[in-house]
Structure to design on (342 residues):
C-alpha cells in the first residue's frame, strides 16, 4: 500500500462522467492539496484494450487520486486493477452505484448490487492483484431491494471477500423509470442507514455520498462516518474547496505528509483569481497540445459563482472560448469582468 495515502478519503470529489477529467482534477488540486480526487468511470474493457494514456493519464500533482472502474468479470477486473497500480494510482474503486442504461447493459454499476457474490469475487481478485486500496462505491439499495438488511448483507459479503472501504450513496437506485439525473435527486436520502452501517461495523471504513453541497455538511457527516464525498457541488461551486484543507483536514487534526513537499494545507487566503492565474501555465501547455480552450474552461466556468461580475465572466467565455485559436487572452478578458479581490 502507498503509505502516503493509506488513510481513507476523509473528503473526496466523486467520480463524474464528462466532469472529473484530468483538467478538472488539476484545477481542483490548486485549491486543495488533500482532498481525494476520483477519475471519471472507466470501463474495464476500455482500460485493457483502449488508449491508456488518454484513459488513464494524469499529472503528478493530482495525488491523491483514485481510478474508478466499471465491469463485472473478476479476472479482467484484477488485470485492470494491476494496470491502475502500475500507472501510479493511489486507489482503485469498483462502480456498483451508477444506474445509467448504458452501464446496466454492461451488467455493472448499480445492477451489480443484486449479485453480491460476483462483486465479492471481483473485489477479492482485485485485492489479490494489487497493494493499493480496493474500494467499492454503491447505493443503499436497488429498486424494491431497499431495506437496510439488503444493503448490510451486501456489504458483509463484500467485506468477507476483502473489501474494507465502502463509499455509500445514501439513495437507492431505480434501474427502470428514472434517468441518471433523476436518480441523483428523486429517491430520498437516507443518511441514517449509512450511519447505522458504520455504527454496526466500526472495523470498516464507511464514506457517505449524496446531497452534500457544503463543507459544513461534510463535517457534520464526519461525526458519524469515516469520509464524505461531494459530487455535483464540486463542479458547480469549485471554490468551496479553497477552504477544504484548513476547515476539514485541520479540524480533523491532519497535516500534509513530507512526501507532498511538507507544504502547509491550502488555506482560504487564496482568491479565485489567484487560483486561476496559477492554473494558466497548465492551460497554456494543453492549448499548445491542441486542446480547444472551451474544453478546458468548461471546468472552471462556475469559479466566480455568486460574485459580482460572474454573469459577464460567463458571457465572455461563452462567446469566445469556443472560437478557433482562442487562447489565454480570452481568460484574461473574462477575469477583467470580476473584481480583483475575488
Amino acid at each position: 500500500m502507498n503509505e502516503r495515502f493509506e488513510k481513507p478519503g476523509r473528503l473526496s470529489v466523486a467520480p463524474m462522467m464528462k466532469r472529473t477529467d484530468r483538467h478538472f482534477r488539476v484545477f481542483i488540486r490548486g485549491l486543495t492539496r488533500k482532498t481525494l480526487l476520483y477519475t471519471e468511470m472507466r470501463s474495464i474493457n476500455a482500460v485493457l484494450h483502449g488508449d491508456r494514456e488518454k484513459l488513464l493519464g494524469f499529472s503528478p500533482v493530482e495525488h491523491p487520486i483514485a481510478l474508478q472502474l466499471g465491469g463485472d468479470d473478476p479476472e479482467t477486473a484484477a488485470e485492470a486493477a494491476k494496470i491502475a497500480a502500475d500507472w501510479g494510482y493511489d486507489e482503485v474503486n469498483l462502480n456498483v452505484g451508477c444506474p445509467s442504461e448504458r452501464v446496466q447493459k454492461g451488467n455493472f454499476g448499480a445492477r451489480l448490487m443484486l449479485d453480491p457474490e460476483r462483486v465479492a469475487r471481483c473485489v477479492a481478485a482485485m485485492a489479490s492483484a494489487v497493494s493499493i486500496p480496493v474500494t467499492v462505491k454503491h447505493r443503499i439499495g436497488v429498486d424494491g431491494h431497499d431495506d437496510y438488511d439488503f444493503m448490510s448483507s451486501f456489504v458483509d459479503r463484500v467485506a468477507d471477500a476483502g473489501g474494507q472501504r465502502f463509499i455509500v450513496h445514501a439513495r437507492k437506485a431505480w434501474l427502470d423509470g428514472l434517468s441518471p439525473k433523476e436518480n441523483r435527486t428523486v429517491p430520498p436520502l437516507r443518511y441514517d442507514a449509512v450511519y447505522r452501517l458504520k455504527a454496526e461495523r466500526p472495523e470498516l471504513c464507511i464514506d457517505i455520498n449524496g446531497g452534500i453541497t457544503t463543507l459544513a455538511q461534510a463535517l457534520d457527516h464526519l461525526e458519524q462516518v469515516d469520509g464524505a464525498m461531494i459530487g455535483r457541488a464540486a463542479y458547480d461551486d469549485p471554490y468551496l474547496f479553497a477552504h477544504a484543507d484548513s476547515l476539514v483536514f485541520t479540524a480533523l487534526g491532519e497535516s500534509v505528509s513530507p512526501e507532498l513537499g511538507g507544504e502547509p494545507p491550502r488555506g482560504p487566503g487564496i482568491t479565485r483569481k489567484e487560483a486561476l492565474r496559477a492554473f494558466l501555465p497548465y492551460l497554456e501547455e494543453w492549448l499548445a497540445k491542441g486542446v480547444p480552450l472551451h474544453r478546458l474552461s468548461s471546468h472552471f466556468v462556475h469559479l466566480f459563482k455568486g460574485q459580482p461580475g460572474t454573469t459577464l465572466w460567463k458571457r465572455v467565455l461563452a462567446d469566445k472560448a469556443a472560437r478557433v485559436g482562442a487562447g489565454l487572452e480570452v481568460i484574461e478578458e473574462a477575469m477583467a469582468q470580476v473584481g480583483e479581490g475575488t
Observations:
- Confidence is low (pLDDT under 50) at residues 1-6, 256-265.
- The first strand starts at residue 11 and ends at 13.
